[in-house]
Amino acid sequence: MSDALAAPGTGTPTLDVDRSDPDYRAWLKDAVRKVQADSNRSADTHLLAFPLPGQWGIDLYLKDESTHPTGSLKHRLARSLFLYGLCNGWIHPGSPVIEASSGSTAVSEAYFAKLIGVPFIAVMPRTTSRQKTRLIEFHGGRCHLVDDPRTVYEVSAALAEESGGHYMDQFTYAERATDWRGNNNIAESIYQQLRLERFPEPTWIVATAGTGGTSATIARYVHYMQYDTRVCVPDPENSCFFDGWLAGDPGASSDCGSRIEGIGRPRMEPSFLPGAIDRMMKVPDAASIAALRALERAIGRRAGGSTGTGLWSALKIIAEMVGQGRTGSVVTLICDPGERYLDKYYSDAWLAEQGLDIEPYAQTIDTFLATGDWPA
After folding, report:
1. Does residue 13 fall inside a structural domain?
2. How many CA atoms lie within 13 A of 3 on its CB side?
3. Total domain count for the chain?
4. Would you tell me the crossing angle of helices 22-40 and 74-87 to the nearest 10 degrees?
5. Which residue has the higher pLDDT, 103 or 321?
6. Which residues pair with 334 in a beta bridge?
7. Full residue range of the structural domain in which residue 198 is found
8. I need a labelling partner for 283 at 20 to 30 A (CA). Which of 70, 113, 317, 355 fits?
9. What is the mean pLDDT of residues 289-296?
10. Does 300 fall in a domain?
């Protein structure tokens, strides 16, 4: 019962568990039931309208994923990853779950770990917002901070080996743990909520990428359902996804971590599927922050930086549609709440410290919303 074995498909050492043992089977059934029950008692997230001039004939919506129990889009992913790990026999009673994360996934995974009664350790960059680390600790998790964001993978795997736990590895398993054909995934939800709108099949869906799992789920669902919707993935500064997609280079990398927490990566992650999407944009970090502040002015909601990255790209796509005289709808996401970033994206002192000037980008948004013209 104490021998260390490699869990199939993960390379993560785990305790040798007798999977036919009645006590283990009873624990597994109860753990899966608890995770599924969380979904069963949760309502769908709202699809909010962003005000645009009526004469454009274009509707913009934001899927508000900040209303999940753990406050972010990653609640869906964490639930899927826990079900995947449990049903594969990788998560065991008493053994810790370890995750490499920039924050929000770790918050959600800490919640599910506590729900089924296993320890949780989050390996994160030291620059992760303090609000996020507090939330992880609130849900019973422990934070292991690293100075170099590029080392989170190796450190997570080493901690799993030392503890006999399971390295969840969201960056590898995000796209395969989610049922992209339906089963109330985020893509199916978007289309269901648009059924009674004047443009029920969106022209574009804009989804930022951290693991790449959300964009993969949406793109696969679009192709599976034979929709004409196009999928755009915006990428922040200090991320390699755009360069890897543009050059068709799976080995693309970046030397430093993203300032926009939750999205952008220093390597091409296994869950990022560049062949499934239609378009990418490189978005300056200052533009992302200008967009999230414009969101607050428009609908009174504060959101995180990744939401701003998506909104900037959605507005730019809409500007192209206006210029072409096209009508239709565009959907993007509110990924998490802005209250987690009051000391960052909503702090003028932090902007000055980072050397970020958002004013030119704020003027671009204001000019576009007033005139329909996107300044060069």
Report:
1. no
2. 6
3. 1
4. 160
5. 321
6. 64
7. 47-69+185-371
8. 70
9. 98
10. yes
Closest CA to 60 of 352, 294, 336: 294
Any bridge partners for residue 124, and if so which?
145
Contact at 8 Å (CB) between 35 and 42?
Answer: no
Q: Is residue 19 part of a domain?
A: no
Show the tokens assigned to 340.
């987690």
Q: Answer whether residue 56 is part of any domain.
A: yes
Residues 6+ apart with CB under 8 A from 54: none
Quote the pTM value.
0.90
Q: Which pLDDT score is estimated for 103?
A: 79
Which single residue is written with the structure tokens 């900040």?
66
Residue type, 296: E
- AA identity, residue 169: D
Residues 6+ apart with CB under 8 A from 73: 65, 104, 186, 214, 333, 335, 336
Q: Nearest CA to 73 among 321, 272, 345, 303?
A: 303
Do you know the residue count of the chain? 376
Query: Which runs of consecutive H residues, i.e. helices, occur in 257-304?
Result: 285-299
**Tens of pLDDT along 76-118?**
999 999 999 999 999 999 999 999 987 789 999 999 999 999 9
